[in-house]
Design brief:
alpha+beta, about 220 residues, 3-stranded antiparallel beta sheet, globular, ECO RV Endonuclease, Chain A, DNA-binding, 4-stranded mixed beta sheet
Length: about 220
DNA sequence: CAATGATCATAC
DNA sequence: GTATGATCATTG
């Protein structure tokens, strides 16, 4: 606990810090950092992620880069039940809807963000007050070749539909492990995209999300070792 | 009751 | 509006 908030200088140090947090309630961490604990997350959906960023010394702000650029690590909290099963999908990044011709998987935001992720399971069902939820064992993850193959396959299929002007027909049912869903302040938010005839249209901003079966499997592999 | 579509707070 | 952090709430 004495290292709370310090910037990690290596992946090893970062993981060590995360391991020190394992078993603590969010209320305990919040108190140490002098952060107020909300009664629920309805108006504080990003509270847990921001608390862990602060606790582990991640760079704050809204910069479009990894949480630990010098370490090449992305930090993600993931709500799970007491058996380690994810309770929600995991947001990865906003999907580019224009200027995407020639964009390859290798250069995509999704691939870059998921190349190395420090997963922090947060144990507690939706009805459990945030402060009572418990930090689980961290996992520094790199996608296996099979996992990356699945991600690339879904990404390429979805991006092709977008580039062909079919974004209006894409639902969250597309993709095995990665899905495209709205990512906006509300249904009135609009952004430019490609229409069916190649013309510019306005549509809801979308984001890529990891489906729970995918994150559930990757966490399970870790916990079974 | 899980999954999809919609939404909340904040910084710039 | 975009990008950060995600979960809510309605639907099937």
């Amino acid at each position: 606990m004495h290292t709370l908030g310090l910037r990690p200088t290596s992946q090893q140090y970062l993981v060590h810090s995360a391991e020190q947090l394992c078993g603590l309630t969010l209320a305990e961490v919040a108190q140490t950092l002098q952060v107020n604990v909300p009664k629920n997350l309805r108006r504080n959906k990003g509270w847990i992620g921001q608390l862990l960023e602060l606790a582990l010394g991640a760079s704050a702000g809204s910069k479009p880069e990894q949480d630990f650029p010098e370490l090449g690590v992305e930090l993600k909290t993931i709500p799970v039940n007491d058996q380690g099963k994810p309770l929600e999908t995991t947001f990865v990044s906003v999907a580019p809807l224009t200027g995407i011709s020639g964009l390859r998987w290798q250069d995509s935001n999704v691939r870059n963000k998921l190349s190395c992720v420090l997963w922090i399971p947060i144990i507690g069902e939706r009805h459990v007050p945030p402060g009572e939820r418990v930090i689980g064992p961290p996992l520094l993850w790199h996608p296996s070749s099979e996992e990356e193959r699945l991600l690339q396959q879904d990404w390429e299929e979805i991006m092709e539909l977008i580039s062909l002007g079919h974004i209006q027909s894409i639902t969250a049912r597309h993709g095995q492990v990665l899905q495209l869903r709205p990512k906006a302040a509300n249904s009135k938010a609009l952004t430019e995209a490609i229409g069916a005839k190649g013309q510019p249209i306005l549509t809801l901003p979308r984001g890529f999300y990891l489906k729970t079966n995918f994150t559930g499997t990757l966490l399970a592999k870790h916990f079974m070792l």
